[in-house]
Design a protein that fits this description.
- By secondary structure, the chain is mostly helical.
- It has one domain: Amino acid/polyamine transporter I.
- It is 68% helix and 1% strand.
- It contains 20 helices and 2 strands.
- Strands 1-2 form a two-stranded antiparallel sheet.
Length: 524
């Protein structure tokens, strides 16, 4: 059945074509090296010139065999491999882990106790199940970047999510998949950046209500602090922000859990239910599942790792740690407040502790901004600003690898754009929740499993096929109630008083009744 649908139809031809081109190119370069060495020996200058040619040859061969080498645009400008390695340094497995942790330990964590309120023990199980599924889809997405050569060695033949999509749609629609993925990625990443601006302004406004500063003014100040993100050049710098973001997240967890432990004698174990609230449990699914999504960043992270072989180990440990921390945080917080648990757990804290936690939440939001911003910049640069036939504008980088002035201006413009969208677009947060659920589900669940089946169909074992099909079906089934709840929220958000109450909690997917009630005061 899958064969008739076209799975693996073009993969064998693509793999054989790549292997043939790889061997021919390798032999050709070997022959060129021998010709150069012979001519230099005849001219009497073989020592120094031969060494230089050998270095270039090794670099090119390494690029062909391992998929790690200077990008084409850089080599075209004449930059040496050493300069390129300095311009774009590789990251360690630890640094990649900090970036993944930054993505999967986001603001959604504050809504996990609310998910336990409506899901009970099934919600706790879902926290574990979602960690396993998201870790698996991340791995199979990276597996789609590789093909086997004639020697049976894995070679990285694709560089991005877009390349995977184009390979799946070839030969009939060779660029359709890439365009769809690009649009979804840009929407997801830019809206995530805007969410952090909204959250920062709202948290600061509610932490200092007596100060004569409006929420929009706080958002402007937060954006001013984010302008240096325009100077980010590589993931190594982003990893430092992700590390600080993770530390801020740990402080938030420690403060909340410490307060909960101080009230351990009042824990309500009997309130944890074995049944679910049918109407509100789909919201809990959205809170839990989409708190683990990091697939949109993974191709870039894996491609920038010093040792890509450590990627699987990094994914395992980051998701295991996230699963333990999220499960512990959600259970302890719910046991403390039981049926009084609010949508965002900081609303349950006393005013003094709440203000301190909100300050760390602002720091976490600002430190989380660089990762999706840098990823969005990369996508936009590859689509519009690379020196290639299919792009519309010249390269943003000069021959020395430095960012051009107009390229820097465009980055600053993107930061300002996130501010303007967060402040002036009516009900933007509601629309963000709807589109986020669609793009998030597609990029993190539906497409990885579908692409894995399409590209590696004949190499998969039966249980891998079963997992991919099951994830695709479950993801599609879970998407419908999520989208319905958000559409309902948008349709009922026309009442003016409700707009002041809708802020960062929107993206958690709460129902219209919850969000528009007079008691729903998010992050206050």
């Amino acid at each position: 059945m899958f064969a008739r649908m076209g799975f693996q139809a073009a993969t064998d031809e693509e793999g054989l074509g790549f292997a043939a081109c790889d061997d021919l190119d390798y032999d050709h370069r070997q022959g060129m090296q021998m010709d150069v060495l012979t001519s230099e020996e005849m001219m009497g200058g073989g020592g120094e010139g031969g060494e230089g040619s050998g270095d270039l040859m090794d670099g090119d061969s390494h690029y062909q065999r391992d998929g790690t080498g200077p990008p084409k645009s850089a080599s075209k400008d004449g930059a040496s491999p050493n300069e390129l390695s300095e311009a774009k340094p590789k990251i360690t497995a630890w640094e990649a882990g900090w970036n993944v942790t930054n993505a999967i330990q986001g603001m959604f964590v504050l809504g996990l106790p609310y998910a336990i309120l409506h899901g009970g023990y099934l919600g706790l199980f879902l926290i574990i199940f979602a960690a396993v599924v998201c870790c698996y889809t991340g791995k199979i997405l990276i597996a789609c970047l590789y093909e086997e050569d004639e020697d049976g060695q894995l070679v990285r033949v694709r560089d991005s999510y877009v390349d995977i999509a184009n390979a799946c749609c070839a030969p009939r629609f060779p660029s359709l998949g890439g365009h769809v993925v690009n649009v979804a990625q840009i929407i997801e990443l830019v809206m995530t950046c805007i969410l952090y601006v909204v959250v920062s302004g709202n948290l600061m406004y509610n932490s200092f209500p007596n100060m004569p500063i409006s929420q929009k003014s706080w958002a402007i100040m937060a954006t001013a602090a984010l302008l240096p993100c325009a100077f980010l050049k590589n993931l190594k710098a982003v990893s430092k922000f992700s590390l600080l973001c993770t530390l801020a997240h740990f402080v938030i967890n420690i403060l909340v859990i410490a307060y909960c432990l101080s009230r351990a004698r009042d824990w309500a174990w009997d309130k944890v239910k074995f049944y679910i609230d049918v109407k509100k449990f789909p919201i809990s699914i959205g809170i839990i599942v989409f708190s683990y999504t990091s697939q949109i960043f993974l191709p870039s992270l894996e491609g920038n790792m010093q040792k890509p072989s450590e990627f699987h180990c990094m994914m395992n440990w980051t998701h295991i740690a996230a699963c333990i921390l999220k499960g512990l945080f959600a259970l302890v917080a719910y046991l403390t407040w039981a049926d009084a648990t609010k949508e965002v757990i900081t609303d349950n804290l006393p005013p003094g502790i709440r203000a301190v936690v909100n300050i760390f939440l602002v720091a976490k939001a600002l430190l989380s901004y660089p990762l999706p911003f840098f990823a969005a910049v990369e996508v936009l640069e590859k689509c519009f600003f690379k020196e290639a036939e299919h792009t519309y504008f010249p390269d943003c980088y000069g021959g020395d690898g430095r960012l051009k002035s107009w390229g820097l201006s465009l980055r600053c413009g993107l930061v300002v754009f996130t501010l303007l969208m967060a402040i002036y677009v009516p009900h933007f947060a509601l629309l963000m929740g709807l589109t986020g659920s669609l793009t998030g589900a597609g990029l993190c669940f539906l497409l990885p499993s579908l692409f894995h089946l399409k590209l590696l169909w004949r190499k998969l074992l039966w249980h891998q096929v079963f997992f991919d099909v099951a994830i695709f079906v479950i993801g599609a089934a879970a998407l419908e109630p999520q989208a319905s709840s958000r559409v309902d929220l948008i349709l009922t958000a026309v009442r003016p008083p409700s707009t002041e109450l809708i802020c960062s909690g929107i993206n958690h997917g709460f129902t219209a009744k919850d969000m528009l009630s007079g008691n729903a005061k998010y992050y206050k």
